[in-house]
Write a structure and sequence with these properties.
Elements: H1 2-17, E1 27-33, E2 37-42, H2 50-56, H3 62-81, E3 94-97, E4 107-110, H4 130-138, H5 145-161, H6 179-191, H7 206-214, H8 226-244
Helix pairs in contact: 3-5, 3-8, 4-6, 7-8
Length: about 240
């Protein structure tokens, strides 16, 4: 119960700090359930998570996939401008909403701010930055906006390619449910350069690919900002939309 209350306080604080931001799920209120404990209520995302949306719509055009990722980055850039860091950005923490009930017009909304400003062992390892994974090993929980940028680029890869990046090291039988061991092995392979997230060739322009790949720099201070990534993805979405007409 203590953990759930801690997460609730983090999410409530995150919701308060992000009120009115575009692409962050609109805060409605909170509830207290006798069995489940306290919880945040946000606007319902009718389209489901990004994972569910892309699974149902496998053949949507590339420019729409890019716009999904760009909207996510815009939302996170707004959070960063208010000194709020999400900490667990992945396709299951982003939902699709239809403003005013218009199905043809969607918006991307960020949900689950329970990890905001406080790294949890529950962060999704394959989308987490190296410094977050390292925190799982050392307990040194220093991280910031550049960690979100790594995760944003991971989600962008997923949106563009339609396939989640899942390193083989995280699938090894000896890991099981041992998060500590998973963090150790994953971090070692990243440090050694044996695995590296990258876009397949020719899916986007070289300039856009360069911005995405720059987000995977091991040095957090050398990564682009979330706003810069949003701008690059939006520009590429516009370019591909023009080519498709």
């Amino acid at each position: 119960m203590a953990d759930s209350i801690h997460e609730f306080r983090n999410e409530l604080r995150g919701s308060y700090l992000t009120v009115g931001l575009p692409n962050v799920a609109p805060f409605v209120g909170f509830i207290v359930d006798r069995t489940l404990g306290p919880g945040i209520v946000t606007r319902f995302g009718e389209g489901g998570t990004v994972s569910q949306f892309l699974e149902r719509n496998k053949f949507i055009p590339a420019h729409i996939r890019l716009r999904l990722a760009a909207e996510l980055c815009t939302g996170v850039a707004g959070m960063h401008a208010r000194n709020v860091v999400h900490g667990d950005i992945n396709p299951k923490n982003v939902v699709i909403g239809f403003p005013n009930g218009v199905v043809g017009k969607f918006e991307v909304w960020i949900i689950d701010l329970s990890s905001a400003r406080a790294l949890s062992a529950q962060c999704t390892i394959s989308y987490a930055s190296p410094e977050q994974v390292r925190a799982g090993v050392t307990g040194d929980f220093r991280w910031g906006a550049p960690s979100d940028v790594w995760s944003l680029a991971m989600v962008a890869l997923y949106c563009i390619n339609g396939v989640a990046w899942e390193p083989e090291v995280l699938k090894r039988p000896q890991i099981g449910n041992d998060i500590f061991k998973a963090c150790q092995l994953y971090l070692k392979e990243l440090d050694d350069g044996r695995i590296w997230p990258a876009l397949p060739p020719n899916l986007v322009s070289k300039s856009t690919a360069d911005v995405i790949h720059a987000c995977f720099t091991m040095d957090p201070e050398r990564r682009p900002s979330s706003a810069a990534l949003a701008a690059a993805l939006e520009q590429e979405a516009y370019r591909l939309e023009l080519l498709s007409t």
